[in-house]
Design a protein that fits this description.
heterodimer; A: alpha/beta; eight-stranded parallel barrel; 45% helix; 14% strand; B: alpha+beta; four-stranded antiparallel sheet
């Protein structure tokens, strides 16, 4: 149990999703391979076969549930991964062979499975084609689930989440699949030792408005001694707490309570929109009263095992646009590459994927895939206000090429007799070269949306997935904010609007600075909307105060000074 | 027993999704279904077996179907490959 000094201990991490949570800790155990300690003389192959069958049935039930849930939440493409896993459970070369070995070699079920799976993994890895090599992951995934289920109800993994009660989930690492599988309504908060602010787990936590602290500094051994804990997803700390207290406290007011704030002067000039990843998020648009979608990440549609058809894309885009109307939906074209993989595209490994063939660069190399997406966007534009935004633009030539393809798709669609709506065209400003060149680019688009995640990563030369460099990943670095000011000025002079759609869009501390700059739209994870709205609603600027704040911030030498300035400003208001 | 020479023509080959479709189709028949490529021979109802052959675009293999419903099985599987080629899955 906790020693005296542990009670006082506080661990620092990255505040990845807003709000405070306090409650009992449930530890997500990574699967550990345990040696079979049973007496070999007592071996009973009939019993082993029975154990194996039970584990198969349990795994099959879990996979069916997961398949159904993922189909509802993420769409058909993801669901197919789990359907393929289920096929492995009836595979004569896998399960059949394992059963043979239990009988002929007197092996325990675990060992028989492991032997067969290891051989299969080896065979697949040796095939000189990445499609096939990657299927080894599926075999390992199914093996893990079977081994866990062989351990019975006291097993490990997400399946072991308690049937009752609300819990703080503590994990060494949290995969998107694990996050999806947890009953989110009973998760009070997340404490995750690995991963940063932009990891998938962080984004999912924010989407569901569950407080989370990631990249926690403590060792796994000391963290797992936590029985009751409190965490703050804004300030990024975790500490042990006494028994009994349970609950969460959003840092903003609940959506119902905040209507009175909706009329602030600053809010009248600004649009608070949501970042979404799939049509299932449409419910969150309404729940958190988003004024549109400032970033619709379409890549999730493309991450399954087959590419989405035009019809499937049309359906997905239309659903979000419909949920948003009368507000605008900004659809970002495919942003694959870098940290996001798409097996169906069969992309070669790159030395520096973040500097490689990603996003628009990839689309221009694969114009057929791009064309299908642009056609779907035009057709969806008939449903409501639509904008299209190109990611990873570095040069004007790329933008011009993309626009050419966009308008040729428009011509096709019109000629085929479909009705279409107006579509605004914008560029996601995330490469420093485009930001610097914003005044030239502004003449050829309707809006800018600043992607602060990548802009920060590229300006500070910090890999945003590398949690060892989390301290250096400073979105509030004066150079990044200076660049944003430059982009905003260029937009103002050209008479186009500019939004922020990176994680900085949901940063309460930075929001007065963005308001002072004249940024029109802040787009963020839906769960962050209440606190940003509440903070901006209380805000008023006296004459001259906007330019003074901007000047004061841009005169800072460090991110720490920027924070001090902005804190002072907020406290004075 | 029916033996057919088959060539994979869809661009990504018989990888996960196409192989899943194949296994689902093959499993509906009583007949024993074997796939033979060079020295290797695998169970045509096993996804792992099929994947292990690494049947990429252009690969050729021998399809051997043996059983009461062999005619129907061979026909359905050949049609499946043709439709995969057409849709290029």
């Amino acid at each position: 149990m906790c020693s005296e000094n542990m009670i006082e201990k506080t661990w620092q991490g990255i505040g990845a999703s807003s709000g405070r949570a306090v409650g009992k800790v449930w530890v997500l155990q990574a699967f550990k391979d345990e040696q079979d300690k049973r007496d070999p003389d007592a071996f009973d192959s009939a019993r082993e076969l029975e154990r194996l069958q039970k584990a198969i049935d349990l795994t099959n039930t879990n996979l069916s549930k997961l398949e159904q849930q993922v189909r509802n939440e993420q769409g058909e493409e993801f669901a197919q991964i789990f359907a393929a896993h289920k096929l492995l459970l009836t595979d004569p070369s896998f399960i059949g062979e394992a059963q043979n070995r239990i009988k002929s070699k007197n092996l325990p079920a675990e060992q028989a499975l492991k032997e067969v799976a290891e051989e299969a993994v080896k065979t697949l890895r040796n095939i000189p084609d990445r499609y096939f090599q990657e299927r080894a992951v599926d075999v390992q995934d199914v093996l893990q689930q079977l081994l866990q289920n062989l351990l019975g109800p006291r097993g490990t993994g997400v399946a072991a989440f308690p049937q009752e009660g609300n819990w703080i989930v503590l994990a060494d690492e949290l995969t998107p699949a694990q996050t999806i599988s947890l009953p989110k309504e009973r998760v009070l908060g997340f404490i995750v030792r690995k991963g940063g602010n932009t990891s998938h787990a962080a984004i999912l936590a924010r989407t569901y408005a569950i407080p989370a602290v990631l990249g926690v500094s403590g060792s796994w051994e000391e963290l797992t001694e936590l029985k009751w804990a409190e965490l703050d997803g804004d300030e990024g700390w975790v500490k042990p707490t006494g028994e009994g207290a349970v609950g969460t406290q959003p840092s903003g007011d609940s959506p119902e309570e905040e209507t009175e704030y909706l009329d602030g002067a600053v809010l009248q000039e600004m649009v608070l929109a949501a970042n979404v990843g799939n049509p299932a998020d449409a419910a969150l648009i309404q729940k958190f009263k988003a004024q549109g979608v400032g970033l619709y990440r379409t890549e999730f549609l493309f991450m399954g095992e087959a590419l989405p058809t035009e019809e499937a894309q049309l359906q997905a885009y239309s659903e979000v646009i419909k949920a948003c109307t009368p507000h605008l939906t900004v659809i970002r074209t495919l942003d694959i590459g870098g940290d996001k993989k798409a097996p169906a595209l069969e992309l070669p490994e790159e030395q520096n994927p973040f500097l490689g063939v990603r996003a628009l660069r990839l689309c221009l190399q694969k114009p057929e895939i791009f064309r299908r997406q642009l056609r779907a966007i035009w057709r969806a534009s008939a449903v409501g206000p639509t904008a299209v935004m190109f990611p990873m633009v570095a040069t004007l030539e790329e933008l011009r090429k993309a626009k050419e393809l966009l308008f040729s798709a428009r011509e096709e669609i019109v000629n085929e007799g479909y009705s279409i709506g107006e579509v605004q065209v914008g560029v996601m400003i995330e490469i420093p070269a485009a930001a610097w060149n914003a005044s030239k680019i502004s003449a050829e688009v309707d809006f800018f949306s600043i992607g602060t995640n990548d802009l920060t990563q590229y300006m500070l030369a910090v890999d945003r997935e590398n949690h060892q460099l989390a301290d250096l990943y400073q979105t509030d670095h004066p150079a990044v904010l200076g660049m944003i000011a430059r982009v905003s000025k260029a937009a103002e002079q050209a008479g186009i609007w500019v939004g922020i759609c990176g994680e900085a869009g949901g940063d309460v501390l930075l929001s007065p600075f963005f308001a002072a700059l004249g940024i029109r739209e802040l787009s963020m994870s839906p769960g962050q909307l209440p606190k940003v709205r509440r903070s901006l609603a209380k805000l008023t600027f006296k004459p001259e105060e906007k330019s003074k704040l901007v000047e004061a911030v841009l005169n800072c030498g460090t991110a720490a000074e920027v924070k001090e300035r902005l804190k002072d400003f907020l406290e004075g208001h | 027993m029916i033996t057919r020479e088959v060539t994979i023509k869809n661009s990504s080959g018989l990888h996960a999704r196409p192989a899943s479709l194949w296994v689902q189709a093959a499993s509906r028949f009583q007949s024993k279904i074997q796939i033979k490529k060079a020295d290797a021979e695998v169970d045509g109802k096993s996804i792992l077996g099929i994947l292990s052959l690494g049947l990429t675009a252009g690969s050729q293999f021998e399809l051997i179907v043996d059983g009461e419903d062999e005619q129907e099985a061979a026909k359905v599987l050949e049609e499946l490959l043709a439709s995969m080629e057409k849709q290029d899955v």
